[in-house]
Amino acid sequence: MILDGKAPTGKIQDSWDDHRFASLKLVNPANKRKYKVLVVGTGLAGASAAATLAELGYQVEAFCYQDSPRRAHSIAAQGGINAAKAYPNDGDSIYRLFYDTIKGGDFRAREADVWRLAQVSNNIIDQCVAQGVPFARDYAGYLDNRSFGGAQVSRTFYARGQTGQQLLLGAYSALSRQIGLGTVKMFPRTEMLDLVVVDGEAKAITVRDLVTGEVRTHVGDAVVLATGGYVNVFYLSTNAMGCSVTAIWKAHKKGAYLANPCYTQIHPTCIPQAGDYQSKLTLMSESLRNDGRIWVPKKKEDCGKAPGDIPEADRDYYLERKYPSYGNLAPRDIASRAAKEQCDEGRGVGPGGRGVYLDFSASIERLGEGTIRERYGNLFEMYERITDENAYKRPMRIYPAPHYSMGGLWVDYNLQSNIPGLFVLGEANFSVHGANRLGASALMQGLADGYFVIPYTIANYLAQTKPGKVTADDPECRKSIADVQAERKQLLGINGKKTVSEFMREVGVLMWNNVGMARSQQSLTDTLQKLPGIREEFWQNVKVSGSGDELNQQLENAGRTADFIEFAELLCRDALHREESCGGHFRVEHQYPDGEAMRDDANFTYSAAWQWKGTGQTPELHKEPLKFDNVHLAVRSYK
Amino acid sequence: MRLLSDSIGRKVVMAITGLLMVLFVVGHLLGNLSIFAGPNGINAYAEKLHGLPQVVWATRVVMLTAVALHIVLSIRLTLENRAAKPTAYAVDRRLRVTFAGKNMIWTGLLLGGFIAFHLLHFTVRSVPGLDIVQGLDGHGRFDVFSMVVAAFGHVVTAVVYVVAMAALFLHLSHGIQSTFQSLGLNNAKTMPGFLKFGSVLSVIFLLGYGSIPVAIFFGLIAK
Amino acid sequence: MSATEHGTMNLKLIVWRQSGPDKPGRFETYDAKNITPHHSFLEMLDVVNEDLIKAGKDPIAFDHDCREGICGACSAVVNGVPHGGQERTTLCQLHMRKFKDGDAIYLEPWRARAFPILRDLIVDRTALDRLVQAAGFVSCHTGGVADGNAILIGKPEADYAMDAAECIGCGACVAACPNGAAMLFAGAKVAQLAELPQGQVEAPQRVAAMVKAMSDNDFGNCTNHYECEGACPKGVKVKFIARLNREFTKALFQETLGTISTNRGTSKE
After folding, report:
1. What is the spatial distance between Cα A222 and Cα A203, in angstroms, rounded to a whole number?
2. How many domains is chain B partitioned into structurally?
């Protein structure tokens, strides 16, 4: 089936304004209070959406698995948030932000959506300032900007190294205000485990209270999913431990299409894994590459030596060698793949040979330790806390790690999935980043969706539906509760030999090795053959202790792991079908002789949206062709 | 907003009454030190002071009110705070809490008791079982000097006063800097200064007040 | 590299176990075996839990999420000190190299009346959310706000607000406070918003509501021990409590004079 994103046609500059006026219906103020919207997830997208919808007058119920909405993983973003304010007078514009985002995404996103994002980006900054977000300022009192990867202008706004935290606390404060006013009912420590679809429309969710274990259904008039990304499918990632695919996977199994799951982003500057016991990877700001030189020993036998004992002549500054003009500042995907290559060839350093050096000695010599400390002191401190190594004295070790998923549930221009009434925001949807996300764009998208898009587009759906159509005693609701309870019961009843983390680690390692930074037909086929076996073993041999009627973290993780195992198959299938390399998806068969990613625009200029057909069944592919009227398709080159 | 029932309102009252008492303690010390000038010093000072009954009574009323408020609020705060922290940790390890800070209620209650005793002792001059020397000096003034010297000649009385001054030292070494925090006067710049000020002042009180019974007991001040 | 680089250690954990909110709790002792210096504290707990699961016992429940020191979820008192006492370090960032082979480690949940225990080391911290819900915000609407540069904010003021905004809401301050007070948490929020022009409009109402909310939510009173500052994994300073006190006193004074009203819905005299 050919999917229609329902993007407005006509002049792109006017597309969002025209659409809002001409295509979107409004709900009158007195009627708004009759509608209830369920918002799942309270990160940037969810919290801003819940707060804004409640302020408009809708009844809102908001859900998060954390103990407080303030802890959603948006909080971990360090670098900043982009906006086309052009305050530095350096030639930025909405058009340029739009263009950079399309190009950065390797021409795999919908133009109109990206334009809208660039357009509302300026409102986001104003909104956050009004909320009391302490953005960095210059001495004259004006907002400060810095530059970030993939752009030639300084358009990134930041709050120390904690931009995500500060923006989330802004959205959380707006949400808290509504909770205090009684317009939002907040359900923390509550995990969504099913979507209820009645007569083809999303009308309720089934959740489990993580404290009492109670499984119940919340009924509304529309469901908004803002549940983040799925890169924990690789087991080790920079995502929080609780980040999972569960909410969107359950929606997918109820009919929502999942688009472009193979677009995953690997961040080059993370602290390498130290051992098998490790539970998560920590990202360090990419800005380190401004002053650090990346190298590995030329000779394999030098890998065990202390870096200081390896003479200059025996070091390979491979990025500088391969990409003379960009050098250590090569884009994320390229830097990541190059590091993997060196380690695969046996020249990696540190535990397991999975690391490359990021060396500041030249910069320290040139600028002095004081300057480096001023620029990166907090990162060096964090590095030392984790590794017990002083990076002023010996080079840092870094290695790439999964940290963002561009793919997600398919949505149209109104952020509505193919199931009417189901809206998807932020990282959970597939929309604006195409095949690769630029730095400082995730925060922008989350808040754009929540503050400035969904409030308009959801009204269009609600205006055409009767409030309170479905009640909790609807057979679909009761069936959903029974299904969720049955699944919990099954998980608890297996009482096998392997723990949940053993399964998750097994799947993660398999996915990381075969479907991580580089994919081949061979690796994908192999993985697709192994995954069903792991899935079957999981349902026969997993060990989950305790009961379902209490706080049971094993049970929570078991459910998430089961979904990851199923989802991993879809990710592989998507990666296998996309016979090209683009952005975060690199197929070794499709590269230029110099190792650059080779797109196939003739055959793959579309978004791939997959429809669930049952466990073990091949999902059905639906294509949404992508049209580029305002930017020209071109090869990205960073030589 | 309410001064006597909001948590911070009560802190402010504690701080202001505390500061008033500190001011009193400063004046009282200056007066008391006149004992080192011999009978002429302190007896003349006492007579002069009592020649101003309005000042004396106004001070007494203000100070008694302050003491009463300070005690009542501190007991309420302590009870509330204990209720807010019902269970202690198995390992008692503290990063910043000081002995003085932790025992404010006890040093405070001890001081409260001492103030009552001290008033009975040297102001009302009637403590059952205690012989208080009362008389006039050669100039026809009430002989404060002889009364005090005689009192601190007794080991028990001297010890009681010294212990009370130790309690005062502890109480104020936390209390003085605490008032500046409660009144919101602290910031990164002023805080170290206030902390030092509190410590120095409470040491001065300890040495100043403590020296009197000690000096008398060891015969450094005698008739 | 440290001498213990390749050495492993065995530790004794004395952990508070409590199966539910109103259930009795007790300490139980577990062995943590083959722990390397590079294990984070929570990864050490992961190891212990895997052993417990395999032995058919209930694993130790503890809150955690980002494991990079920013989400504020992790929360346990290690040998009497919230987050274990390494300066500016959350429990998830504390590493086992700070311990020695054979150490005995006491692990307890945050203890305060405002934080009821849910299970083992997990407590209910929604009282902190309720403080923010009371007034820890600027009441601006979505949309229709001024340009970000319309009101200039000096760099020192912006930095001061950011220092206060570092708070991750973990509740270590409350756990450390001998009085179970939330003054550092509330002070940081009040100070951040009172420092910025956007937050100054509602500053008196905010401080009044948050101070009231602290009492309503069973938090204790501040007695200026500054234990909170010692335990804060983000280095939030008690100068923000002084700011809270100052804002309160100012508002009380102004209200007493009738120049403002802190009661939303009423006009000033």
Report:
1. 6
2. 1
Pick the residue from chain C with its C-alpha nearest to A178.
C133
Considering the domain boundaries, does residue B24 fall inside one? yes
What are the strands of the beta sheet with C25-35, ordered from one edge? C25-35, C9-18, C104-108, C77-78, C81-82
CATH of the domain at B140: 1.20.1300.10
Distance between CA A69 and CA A179 in Å, rounded? 11
The topology (CATH level 3) of C126-257 is: Fumarate Reductase Iron-sulfur Protein; Chain B, domain 2 (1.10.1060)
Residue range C9-119, CATH number? 3.10.20.30
Q: Domain locations in chain A?
A: 266-403
Compute the distance between CA of residue A146 and CA of residue A100 in angstroms, rounded to an integer.
Answer: 16
Three-class secondary structure of residue C50 per DSSP = helix
Q: Which residues of A are catalytic?
A: 332
Q: Round to whole Å and give the CA distance between A283 and A485.
A: 37
Task: Give the pLDDT of chain B (223 residues) as one tens digit per residue.
Answer: 788 889 999 999 999 999 999 999 999 999 999 999 999 999 999 999 999 999 999 999 999 999 999 999 999 999 999 999 999 999 999 999 999 999 999 999 999 999 999 999 999 999 999 999 999 999 999 999 999 999 999 999 999 999 999 999 999 999 999 999 999 999 999 999 999 999 999 999 999 999 999 999 999 998 7
Nearest neighbour of B87 by CB, restricted to C111, C177, C208? C111
CATH ID of A266-403, from 3.90.700.10, 3.40.605.10, 3.40.50.1360, 3.40.50.720: 3.90.700.10
B-chain residue closest to C231, CA distance: B95
Q: What angle do CA A548, A552, A556 make, to 5 degrees?
A: 90
* Domain residue spans of chain C: 9-119, 126-257
Q: Decide if C112 and B177 are in contact by the 8 Å CB cutoff.
A: no
Contact C226 B183 (CB under 8 A): no
B51 touches chain C (CB under 8 A): no
Asked if residue B222 is part of any domain, the answer here is no
ipTM over 0.90: yes
The interaxial angle of helices C126-135 and A163-181, nearest 10 deg, is 80
Query: Nearest residue of A to residue C48 by CA position?
Result: A277
Task: Establish if C100 touches chain A: CB-CB under 8 angstroms.
Answer: no
- The pLDDT tens digits for A467-479 are 999 999 999 999 9
pLDDT at C252 > cutoff 50: yes
> Best interface-test mutation with B: which of C131, C245, C246 has the largest number of B CBs within 10 A?
C245
Structural contact between residues A378 and A412, judged by C-beta atoms closer than 8 angstroms:
no
Q: Which residues of chain A have pLDDT under 70?
A: 150, 637-639
Residues of C in contact with A70 (CB under 8 A): 72, 129, 132, 169
Q: Enumerate the residues of chain A whose CB falls inside 8 A of the CB of residue C70.
A: 75-76, 162, 165
